[in-house]
Amino acid sequence: MADFDENEYNTLYRFFHIHDGDAMKANEKWGIPASAIIGMAIIESGYGTTRIAINANNLFGIKVWGYNPENAWQLQGQPDEDYERVPVLADYGEDRKIYDESKRRDNWYRAFSTYKEAVNYLAGNLLLNQRYLFAKTNYDKRIKKGWSFDRASKEYLYDIANAGYNHLGGDYYRNKGGGVMDEWDLYQYDNKKFKDISEHWAEEQIMFLAEKGWISGYSDGTYKPNNKITRAQAAAILSEFLSLPPLNKTTSFIDVEKSFWALESIHLVAQHKIINGIGEGRFSPHTILTRAQMAQIFYNAGFYSRSANNGENSFEDVDKYYWAYIAIETMKQEGIMAGYTISRFGPNNPVTRAQMAAMIYRIHEKSLNK
Fold first, then answer.
1. SS3 per-residue string spanning 95-112
2. What distance in Å separates the CA atoms of residue 348 and residue 330, rounded to the nearest whole number?
3. 230 with 288: CB under 8 angstroms?
């Protein structure tokens, strides 16, 4: 840790190990990257030792502009940063001016009862307001596009600084904050693991897809790996995985409301003929997918190098006249889907969310080896 002396190292170590839990909870609740929150606090508070952090529990130097505003603490003796010049009572030379603090608006800082309250205000209020909200939107989109957490978090700092959070600009704040985040690997605190997949057989595959932004969990921080997957959920995963572009086609389903969370994804997979409707203008978004249906969907998406043309069927429970026979044989041939046993496929069995993640992972790995 060449950038810090021993005292700074110890202070900094204590600082973010005390407050990383607050940042992680804020990350889970509001989506602001925990690595950025901790990095910002370290930079702005001087490792938690400045007068602002001590007297106002204000880790981020959040100001309250005005004359003697409520719920604020004044940092006196600072250089003039006001829009209107602060009267000087005595001038002893450069950086040795005594200002009339009663006429100052620029050095009032929001007072918090605890450091946790400061973290929650930053992540749940300030950074979600109209000026900075775009940065979170950009961060989410970049993660979904496959950006690494460290790159996306640094770019988040750039965005908010350019929008006015830091007067030195985006490049400065990204480099300054990125250096601290790299030095201490603060990305380990970002919300990228579901709390119900530890030691699950598909943990690695689920986490890989989540980091790519191809799958998502529930608002309570779970993935529910053993839940059965619905047609709507499959549509959402495949549209993200394939980055499906909209086509100049009109699709509508009478059982998919305009406010439905997967509306866009359903339209995309239907337009690309990957997951079709079930007839009579319906999509049946809540219907559970079977293994045979999943094989057919993967076949429709073109996840194979050549279509199977077996003279004999591989599974006793899937004869060659079965509607999804070619799709099942092709997915077996490609190593994407396998049977429960050598001779049993279980075409009518449901697909779980973990199984779907594992299959998408295999498809991705195969694409890299082509």
1. CCEEECHHHCCCCEEECC
2. 17
3. yes
Number of continuous H segments (helices) and E segments (strands) in the chain: 13, 4
Amino acid at 31: G
Q: Which two tokens stand for residue 268?
A: 């995309």
Which candidate, 362, 46, 35, places its Cα nearest to that of 208? 362
d(CA 270, CA 277): 7
Residue 4 neighbours by CB under 8 Å, 6+ apart: 12, 183
Query: Taking the C-alpha atoms of 164, 82, 80 and 160 in order, what is their torsion angle to the nearest 10 degrees?
Result: -10
Q: What is the pLDDT along the chain (370 residues), one digit of tens a residue?
A: 335 555 555 555 555 555 567 888 888 788 899 999 999 998 888 777 789 988 999 999 999 988 889 999 998 888 887 778 889 999 999 888 888 888 888 889 999 999 899 999 999 999 999 999 999 999 988 876 767 889 999 999 999 999 999 989 999 999 999 999 998 888 888 866 677 888 899 998 998 888 787 888 876 778 999 999 999 999 999 999 999 998 888 888 999 999 999 999 999 999 999 999 999 999 999 999 999 999 999 999 999 999 988 667 889 999 989 999 999 999 999 999 999 998 999 999 999 999 999 999 999 998 887 6
Q: Which residues contact 85 (CB under 8 A, 6 or more apart)?
A: none
CA distance 324 to 294: 10
285, amino acid identity? P
Q: Which CATH architecture has domain 6-63+107-189?
A: Orthogonal Bundle (1.10)
pTM of this structure: 0.56
Q: Would you say 260 and 234 are in contact if contact means Cβ atoms under 8 Å apart? A: no
Question: Do 153 and 33 form a contact (C-beta atoms < 8 A)?
Answer: yes
End-to-end, the C-alpha distance of the chain in Å comes to 42
Domain ranges of the chain: 6-63+107-189, 203-368
C-alpha distances (whole Å) from 113 to each of 51, 76, 81 are 15, 20, 26
